[in-house]
């Protein structure tokens, strides 16, 4: 099946009545989640995984992909109206969006954000359609040594690029790697970290870890901040009209940041947050009037909104074609694939073309839905910010408990959920990032398998990882990504 036939079959999935329904539900839920400060697409996808049990994988994954890019799209609303970003990827949006809202241009700011997001998302889908199949055909030639090196590279990159301390990110990833070894060793039958507990013999389910570290940890934060009344104020968003001069200012940033955001999204560990910040900084340096940035600049708003939405499409390239998540959210998406019995990677396009091309085609449809939702319905959607927090917290807890208990109907899993919820809360307090933990948990099993297969092929010789140029190159990149942040930090401290 060539690319043209594939995209036609993908549109047949996305444009079916069932496909349209789940794309709409995904982007609608994602928009709401993105607008709610404190919740993000990772928690939303983790909560929705139990709801997809028994569903056909294609519409289930189409819906969860919609939640991802819908959350990035919708996150701009709370950033502009409240200066309270719904997700980390829309922090840079508030730099110029909130000043515009304070100047009585909230409607224009929301319209600029919606059009920029639509442009970035649509361009990234086109690039995804063009480059994902090519990358997939190259990846077929990857052997176990190259796969081990690739997964190691992705793990070290996301640890190095996480916000805050690199050391804390590496500690978080190490703990996640240890947790994935719990259970019976599939090769030797040895029990690892089970402490004589029969319920741990099969290891811990991904959903227990994800819901504990993200959903319950967010619930604890919301409970502690329940007296914060900043988001309960009514907002006047004004007119949505954009002038010709505004369009002229938006064209350049939207074109440049669509490409830059996609490239940064493809890199493991980058993602929408870094893309939005780099897009903002780059446009400020390109601008003839950099002093306008931070005071309600049209370019300063269009650039990060275009870049973060373009990055969401880019993040699907390594996920779909290599089976490697490019961000914390796609790491959870990788878990959702596995829960539904689908292995993303080089063979996904040939084994499950309806899923591979269906997700890509659904992103075209989803971006149109998002534009419709975020232009005329913005005044009404913004009212979601006034949902009582006790109701929001209750819904998250109920979904988490039902989701975990339905895995094996074992109360032990609920204790584990509580344990990882407490762990996630303290990780958040002490600034230990959770994405490296969940990424290490997901990649750990595959890394171990690839490592053992490589040693079996080479009769135990580690030289198999450096004898071929591809795994050697990937290992060098992994090493550089590990040590460069330390030198950069040392240089900054000496400056």
Overview of the structural elements:
- With 495 residues, this protein is mainly alpha-helical.
- Helices cover 72% and strands 1% of the residues.
- The chain has 20 helices and 2 strands.
- The chain has helices spanning 3-14, 17-35, 41-48, 57-82, 93-102, 106-139, 144-161, 166-180, 206-224, 244-266, 271-286, 298-322, 328-339, 348-351, 353-374, 378-381, 389-408, 411-429, 434-457, 469-494; strands spanning 183-184, 191-192.
- Strands 1-2 form a two-stranded antiparallel sheet.
- A hairpin with a 6-residue loop joins strand 1 and strand 2.
- It is globular, with a radius of gyration of 22 Å.
- The model is unreliable at 230-234 (pLDDT under 50).
Low-confidence stretches at least 5 residues in length (pLDDT < 50)? Answer: 230-234
Structural class: mainly alpha
What fraction of residues sit in β-strands? under 5%
The dominant shape is: globular
Mean pLDDT rating: 78
Main attributes of the structure:
single chain; mainly alpha; two-stranded antiparallel sheet; 20 helices
Itemize the secondary structure elements and their pairings.
Elements: H1 3-14, H2 17-35, H3 41-48, H4 57-82, H5 93-102, H6 106-139, H7 144-161, H8 166-180, E1 183-184, E2 191-192, H9 206-224, H10 244-266, H11 271-286, H12 298-322, H13 328-339, H14 348-351, H15 353-374, H16 378-381, H17 389-408, H18 411-429, H19 434-457, H20 469-494
Antiparallel strand pairs: 1-2
Helix pairs in contact: 1-15, 2-4, 2-15, 3-4, 3-9, 3-13, 4-5, 4-6, 4-12, 4-13, 4-15, 5-6, 5-12, 6-10, 6-12, 6-15, 7-8, 7-19, 7-20, 8-19, 9-17, 9-18, 9-19, 10-11, 10-12, 11-12, 13-19, 17-18
